[in-house]
Design brief:
- The protein is mostly helical.
- It is built from four helices and three strands.
- It has one domain (3-149).
- It has a three-stranded antiparallel sheet, covered by helices on one side.
- Helix 2 runs parallel beside helix 4 (116-149).
Amino acid sequence: MDGQRIFDRLAVTLCIVAAIAAVALNVATFLTTVAGVWLIPTLLASFAGVFFARRAHTGWRIPERELTWVGLGLFVYSVLLFVSFFRTAGWTSGVSLIDGQYVATYKNQIVRIITEQEYRMFPNLWMRAMSALIAMVSVFSLAELRGRAGD
């Protein structure tokens, strides 16, 4: 097996693994609290997939049009999640526990007092939005690989 073929297979595999892991993380945020550390391997797989996709010249037949629509759908979903995230969080950028009270903060300034449920929900909202974004990048990388297959 030559070096180029290894790049091709590695690019496809990493993009698919990153997309599946990101979708799994996204679904998991609806079921339970997901630690942010799980985003790191998914992000690394996505970055590596994009890196190798740039160097790949694959002949693998992926339905480009369908992948593009899936990627656009994930993009819209990501944007809606970010807007929903900031709306739900009251347009704040963080949460803290100060003097026994849960508070929403923006640039280290207390914006409002929040409930414990809102405090615990904050990391999941962030994970949900980021995992959708990673899935979108991975799907667009697969679409790019398909676009090169026709070259």
